[in-house]
Amino acid sequence: MSARDPVADLRRIAFLLERANEATYRVRAFRSAATALAALPAAELTERARTGTLTELSGVGDVTARCVAESLAGEEPVYLRRLVATEGTDLDEAAGALRAALRGDCHTHSDWSDGGSPIEEMALAAVELGHEYVVLTDHSPRLTVARGLTADRLRRQLDHVAAVNAALPEGFRILTGIEVDILADGTLDQDEELLARLDVVVGSVHSGLRDERARMTRRMLTAIANPHLDILGHCTGRMVSSRPAGVTGPGDKGHRARTRAESEFDADAVFAACAEHDVAVEINSRPERQDPPKRLIRRALEAGCRFAIDTDAHAPGQLDWQQFGCVRAALCGVPADRVVNTWPADRLIDWTRTHA
Ligand SMILES: [Zn+2]
Ligand SMILES: [Zn+2]
């Protein structure tokens, strides 16, 4: 086995200890050992490891000396291996806690637009998952390929939802909503009166995704400033090919898995506007979307935005994809109190009403 870089391994250990919030003296022990050893000629390092005299150097103790010996022998130091394993656990815990904090899903589709199942089936699957609510957000008129709902069909859907709600178990309800297209000029593709009446309005760009940067930025800023908008859906429109293990093709219409680059826009301006107008940035959990990418989630977090971790489910089983969004949110350090669907339904609605 060829030798590893012992200095790099020590620095990595220091980094992981720091990240896990371990005591400063432990972090410093590895970092000063790394500094001391980096200054040493390679031949002397090897010789001292062989003769067991590394600890004679200032800043190098028994634990760090053992790590160096293991690295030089070509093995990942046991200490490092344990930290890497724990690191995974911590992240899983953070993602799990976020998932456990979610009370509902703000972006789902039924067979009224391009989903595969009736509203009742989506609702029952959400009940099974332990949700307190699910927001039904079928598409708007211009998205004809996805059978977007005209104003009349949406009105009929609202009556239908009221009837379905009356028959659902106590403690669960379907909230009304829409995934409204953000049109080329930034206006929203549905009647003003209906947008005002719905519990939750998610706005997404589905056309002209290759708009040039300044134009796309203006378009998004206009939509975000619209008093009806509550959540900005899958903001970059990207499609990634990779899928988490265990997930096969989505098999639903309207969301074909193919690669598509991110739309170009001024992310700082867009997230600043979301923070100003209190519009939540969606973390779309669909494996082929993973939108926004992590670097943009971090920027939105820094800008002070709220988030909604949603599935954009087009079938009942996809309602369980929220965990994928939670993993990405946890990786970016998104705290639960910034996520609007950790709130009970009434609080969520109080918040969306602040947007008219
Ligand atoms: Zn969409
Ligand atoms: Zn959608």
From TrEMBL:
Pfam families: HHH_8, PHP
Domain of life: Bacteria
Keywords: Hydrolase
SMART domains the record matches: POLIIIAc
Keyword Repeat tagged: no
Domain Polymerase/histidinol phosphatase N-terminal: 104-184
CDD domains with a match to the protein in the record: PHP_PolX (cd07436)
Keyword set includes Hydrolase: yes
One cellular-component annotation, GO: cytosol
InterPro entries, A to Z: DNA_pol_lamdba_lyase_dom_sf, HHH_MUS81, PHP_dom, PHP_phosphatase, Pol/His_phosphatase_N, Pol/histidinol_Pase-like, PolX_PHP, UCP036978_PHPhdr
GO molecular function: phosphoric ester hydrolase activity; zinc ion binding
Residue spans crossing the bilayer: none
Cross-referenced PANTHER family: PHOSPHATASE YCDX-RELATED
Name this polypeptide is given: Putative hydrolase
Provenance organism: Micromonospora matsumotoense
